[in-house]
Amino acid sequence: METCEESTTIGKVITCKAAVAWEPKGEFVVQDVQVEPPHAMEVRIKVTHSSLCRSDVFFWANESLAHTFPRIFGHEAAGIVESVGEGITDLRPGDHVLPIFTGECRECKYCASPKTNLCSKFGVASLETGMKSDGKSRFSVQGKPISRFLGSTFSEYTVVEYAYVVKINPAAPLDKVCLLGCGVTAGIGAVRKIAQMEAGATVAVFGLGTVGLAVVKEAKLQGASRIIGVDNKASKADEGKRFGITDFLNPDTLNKPVDEEIRELTEGGVDFAFECVGNPNVMATAFESCQDGWGTTIVIGVAGRATVTIPTRYLLSGRCMKGTLYGGYKPKTDVPELVEQYLRKDLDVEEFITHNLPFTRINEAFKLLLAGDSLRTVLHFDDIIR
């Protein structure tokens, strides 16, 4: 068995460090894990940077999924291809890549359609335990299988199915463009591709985390005339204004429901409401905040299998609600161009990075996220001590 320090690891089991969650809501244990070589149409990636996303928190805290623990979380990351499995011809060791949580086969009717970024063969990567090909994990600790979660990037090495790996320009700094693997892209795409917002539109953004602020920033760039930020954390007011909100509402301090306040401020409701929290009650409130006739609610937040209740009379009056996964972007088709936009300085992700921490301080990073004291914390894997 080879270790990460060996010069040749291709085709061999690698022992490296990973942050293992042994139970829901439990602290991460940074320990040795074994990572198998990639099977056919799989890629083993040396992860260089991984940022923390609220989706990791949602599933880490979900006690109904206790059967999937122990588990390696993480999905918003960047790295370098270490080896590829049989059948892969357009990726090779040394390529710089982003693992993306949703796939693209480029063959099914969804991939052929410009109307969606869904894929019938490779939808969202495994949320349960193993790979789509055989249902098994490529991780273990002393022979005990460790469940995957999407890309499982809280590990020095991970194995990902080919459809979820995007090759990018090696000139792009991996500690920055790792953010394009989830939240920032979801927010940008929700405005650009899903809303297709016209200049002068009025907007309400529910939840001013990374996704919500990405919406705010892009809405401002698209010429929105009014951007109302909604969050129950008072400190988000100044942060939201830095990104472009014109008004800030804290539902906990209002004398009336926030949707009523929004309708009064906008004389009938906003043109677009973006839900970036993942709460069905907030989704309904966002819908109530919209203008009759054309008001559109766009749901970005992850809420599992929760149900949203909305009055049908508003549907009949012309309001609508849309959902979006990854901002509507097709990973292999669209993401390389987003990286190029970053390199041309047409797209900025750096202002979303509030903290940089060594990978071994992952528990500290999670505490910052849970407290709402960070946007994106980028974990660096170069601190591992042998």
From TrEMBL:
Pfam families: ADH_N (PF08240), ADH_zinc_N (PF00107). Its cofactor is Zn(2+). GO terms for biological process: formaldehyde catabolic process. Gene3D superfamilies: Medium-chain alcohol dehydrogenases, catalytic domain, NAD(P)-binding Rossmann-like Domain. GO terms for cellular component: cytosol. Keywords: Metal-binding, NAD, Oxidoreductase, Zinc. Residues 211-340 form the Alcohol dehydrogenase-like C-terminal domain. GO terms for molecular function: S-(hydroxymethyl)glutathione dehydrogenase [NAD(P)+] activity; zinc ion binding. Transmembrane segments: none annotated. It comes from the Eukaryota. Residues 41-169 form the Alcohol dehydrogenase-like N-terminal domain. Belongs to the zinc-containing alcohol dehydrogenase family. Class-III subfamily. This is Alcohol dehydrogenase. It comes from Ceratodon purpureus.
